[in-house]
């Protein structure tokens, strides 16, 4: 059965379910950080302790993402995804009962365990369930769900926490995750992965690890690391760089970065339609990222202070970066052997955790030294390096198959 847009109802259901699951993954990542101002007062925790809670989640997720990919290919993406969102939801709800800081740390780590399964499981299901001609749009909705989760969590959780209390807020949003878990279980027959459900069984773990450590996959890992260094660096420290560079208010600076994220959210939807209509996704990924990186160099070159000039530039940059999202996933898909989507996407996407961690250190140091222009130069530079890497990754994958 086809919908009015030409997409089958089965594809629509799978894409919607995976997009919804990815939304909650990203929403939960920022659930606690959004409540930190309240927890600081109510629980009498300091900023270092609160920051460690967030870091614990991301460290656990980053370390376990590749093992989760192996698990996806071993037992299937469907039970792994349902188990992951269940674990993360229960961990978030657990903060309602947490009466000590060590218990909060444990819950943050458990939440990270749950979060680690989403990328490998999501991509395995999308590759196994969705018509290849619609894969670009499937990836775009997946990205959209994640970005929308990031965009909505800070406002919604702070508003909820102020109105009903931070513990009651985590209990409420955690219970919504349990509802999504049930929804995924009810529709589990639709969520077919590209490995186990197609009769592809993984080899011995030693051979699987050896197969994963090949040049094209390592390059893809580095590509995601460099992309995360640039995107996360601008998202987290871009406002501070604008304040130092052109002496604007914090409200204007943060508003400009928020609009850049809005551009990214729109861009991922546009990118999905483009991805389904082209074949050289590596070229298009490189082109849009290169243009975006060059646009950012207008800030240190001309010290743009007029918001009617620099805000549109940031929005266009965000749009271009968003367009690149589904494209880059199509590149990784093109170099992934049959039945290995879990481990390959898990391994390559873990590069984002590495890049995100590095970006804060490097760009934070530049702001500490009052060198804001080098933040924009650095973001552009790491993205241009990423352009070279993604082109090299695809050509290397072709050579490996010969």
CATH topology of the largest domain: Growth Hormone, Chain: A
What is the tally of beta strands? 0
User: Can you summarize the main beta sheet?
Assistant: none
Total helical segments: 16
Structural class: mainly alpha
Describe the structure.
With 402 residues, the protein is mostly helical. It folds into two domains: 9-202, MFS general substrate transporter like domains (Growth Hormone, Chain: A, Up-down Bundle); 211-401, Growth Hormone, Chain: A (Up-down Bundle), CATH 1.20.1250. The protein is built from 16 helices and no strands. It has helices at residues 9-29, 31-42, 47-75, 77-94, 101-115, 118-129, 135-164, 166-186, 205-212, 215-246, 250-275, 281-296, 298-302, 307-335, 341-368, 372-401. α6 (118-129) crosses α15 (341-368), α10 (215-246) packs antiparallel against α11 (250-275) and α12 (281-296) runs antiparallel to α14. The longest helix has 32 residues, at 215-246.
Secondary-structure map:
Blueprint (H helix, E strand, L loop, with lengths): L8 H21 L1 H12 L4 H29 L1 H18 L6 H15 L2 H12 L5 H30 L1 H21 L18 H8 L2 H32 L3 H26 L5 H16 L1 H5 L4 H29 L5 H28 L3 H30 L1
């Amino acid at each position: 059965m086809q919908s009015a847009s030409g997409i089958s109802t089965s594809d629509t259901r799978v894409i919607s379910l995976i997009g919804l699951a990815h939304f909650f993954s990203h929403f939960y990542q920022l659930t606690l950080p959004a409540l930190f101002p309240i927890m600081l007062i109510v629980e009498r925790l300091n900023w270092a302790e609160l920051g460690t809670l967030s870091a614990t989640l991301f460290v656990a997720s980053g370390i376990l993402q590749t093992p989760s990919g192996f698990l996806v290919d071993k037992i299937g993406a469907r039970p792994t995804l349902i188990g992951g969102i269940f674990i993360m939801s229960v961990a978030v709800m657990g903060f309602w009962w947490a009466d000590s800081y060590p218990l909060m740390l444990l819950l943050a780590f458990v939440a990270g365990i749950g979060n680690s399964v989403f990328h490998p499981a999501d991509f395995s299901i999308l590759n196994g369930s969705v018509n290849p001609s619609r894969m670009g749009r499937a990836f775009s909705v997946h990205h959209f769900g994640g970005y929308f989760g990031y965009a909505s969590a800070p406002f919604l959780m702070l508003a909820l926490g102020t109105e009903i209390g931070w513990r009651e807020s985590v209990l409420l949003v955690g219970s919504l995750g349990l509802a999504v878990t049930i929804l995924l279980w009810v529709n589990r027959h639709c969520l077919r992965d590209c490995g186990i459900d197609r009769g592809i069984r993984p080899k011995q773990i030693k051979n699987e690890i050896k197969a994963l450590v090949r040049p094209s996959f390592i390059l893809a890992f580095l590509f995601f690391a460099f992309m995360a260094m640039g995107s996360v660096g601008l998202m987290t420290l871009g406002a501070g760089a604008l304040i130092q560079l052109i002496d604007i208010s914090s409200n204007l600076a943060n508003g400009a970065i928020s609009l850049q994220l809005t551009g990214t959210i729109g861009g991922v939807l546009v990118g999905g339609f483009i991805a389904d209509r082209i074949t050289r996704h590596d070229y298009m990924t490189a082109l849009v990222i290169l243009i975006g990186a060059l646009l950012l160099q207008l800030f240190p070159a001309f010290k743009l202070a007029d918001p009617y000039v620099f805000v549109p530039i940031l929005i266009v940059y965000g749009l271009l970066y968003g367009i690149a999202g589904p494209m880059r996933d199509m590149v990784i898909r093109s170099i992934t052997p049959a039945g290995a989507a879990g481990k390959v996407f898990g391994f390559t996407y873990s590069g984002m955790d590495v890049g995100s961690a590095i970006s804060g250190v490097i760009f934070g140091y530049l702001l500490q030294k009052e060198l804001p222009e080098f933040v924009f130069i650095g973001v552009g530079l790491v993205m241009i390096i990423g352009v070279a890497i993604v082109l090299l990754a695809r050509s290397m994958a072709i050579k490996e198959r010969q």
